[in-house]
Amino acid sequence: MTAVTTYLCVEGAADALDFYRRAFGAEELYRLTMDNGAIGHAEMRIGETTLMISDEWPEGGVVSPLRQEGSSTSLALTVDSVDALDALWGQALAAGASVEREIEDQFYGHRTGTVVDPFGHRWSIAAVVEEVSPEEMQRRMAGMGP
Amino acid sequence: MTAVTTYLCVEGAADALDFYRRAFGAEELYRLTMDNGAIGHAEMRIGETTLMISDEWPEGGVVSPLRQEGSSTSLALTVDSVDALDALWGQALAAGASVEREIEDQFYGHRTGTVVDPFGHRWSIAAVVEEVSPEEMQRRMAGMGP
User: Fold this and answer.
1) Residue of chain A whose Cα is closest to the Cα of B83
2) Residue B146: pLDDT above 60?
3) Hey, what domains does chain B have and what are their CATH numbers?
4) Helices in B1-146 by DSSP H: which ranges?
5) Which secondary structure element, helix H or strand E, spans residue A111, and what is its range?
6) pLDDT tens across A44-87, in order?
7) Fewest beta carbons less than 10 Å away: which of A43, A121, B69, B121?
8) Can you tell me the mean pLDDT for B79-97?
9) Distance from CA of residue A81 to its chain's centroid?
10) What residues of chain A lie within 8 A of the CB of B142, using their CB?
11) What share of chain A is helix, strand, coil (3-state, %, to 5)?
12) A71 → closest Cβ in B3, B31, B62
């Protein structure tokens, strides 16, 4: 078995590819355009990860998160330093992402914040600031809600 | 920048970790359990990809896909042969996944089918059977719907 690749549906995939380039430095690998102009499939690379993206296909149950209540999937973007985190955070907001949770240090050793992109997908952006073992994370969680 | 990791929310994360192990051979890396028994965070490895998983947190907008209409994100599981595809497909169905689209050869050079898992996430399972360039894919798409 090789790999799991995540497929994002958006309304307006051409705009989304542009946004992900400006916000996260995504490199578009290729796009396939349908006769009606919609993007049937595209691939982009963010850091070392390939993501797939397409326009909506509501008849097939493939819809933009803007049509949905809540998020059942999110993306975690891990960068290699706090400086890189601050830079990427600023770049994402400048590109049009909305803050959902401001950057702060978390008990599991990440400095991280969360944004929602204009297409409805939710991204946490994180840098590891402390190596914390699962056992220590579990200990620190005791007494935390809910 | 390092990597993008996908975070899946499910209702019943302990059962889901068991399902993903039986269906896709996922190896649980660790889990963090909240005081109320819910899994606040877990990580699992499928092939070379790490995925994160948690129980729902509806107050934070993190919900199971079973609460949502349609899929705005799906997962593509790529294996290295048609035999591996058939084996994994059988294993996923035996574990309780539901067929959404039967396996067939697609114009872009993949042999692939799609299942929905019992927790509402959608997975395509694919093997590359023909190397097709983006230009050739685009040519083959002409005249295809919608």
Assistant:
1) A1
2) no
3) 6-141 (3.10.180.10)
4) 13-24, 82-95, 134-141
5) strand A110-116
6) 999 999 999 999 999 999 999 999 999 999 999 999 999 999 99
7) B69
8) 97
9) 18
10) 35
11) 25, 40, 30
12) B62
How far B7 CA lies from chain A's nearest CA (Å)? 5
Within 8 A by CB and 6+ apart from A83, the residues are: none
- pTM of the predicted model, to two decimals? 0.95
CA distance A18 to B61: 26
Residues of A in contact with B73 (CB under 8 A): 6-9, 65, 72-73, 121
Residue A47 near residue A88, CB atoms below 8 Å: no
Give A2's contacts in chain B (Cβ within 8 Å). 47-48, 78-80
| Spatial distance between the Cα atoms of A96 and A27, rounded to a whole number of angstroms | 18
Instruction: Report how far residue A60's alpha carbon sits from residue B80's, in angstroms, rounded to the nearest whole number.
Output: 27
Return all residues near A117 (Cβ < 8 A) that are at least 6 apart: A16, A19, A20, A23, A92, A96, A97, A98, A123
Burial class (CB in 10 A: 0-12, 13-18, 19+), B60: middle
Is residue B142 very low, low, confident or very high in pLDDT (cuts 50, 70, 90)?
Answer: confident
Helix residue spans in chain A (DSSP H): 13-24, 82-95, 134-141
Residue B47: list chain A partners with CB under 8 A: 1-4
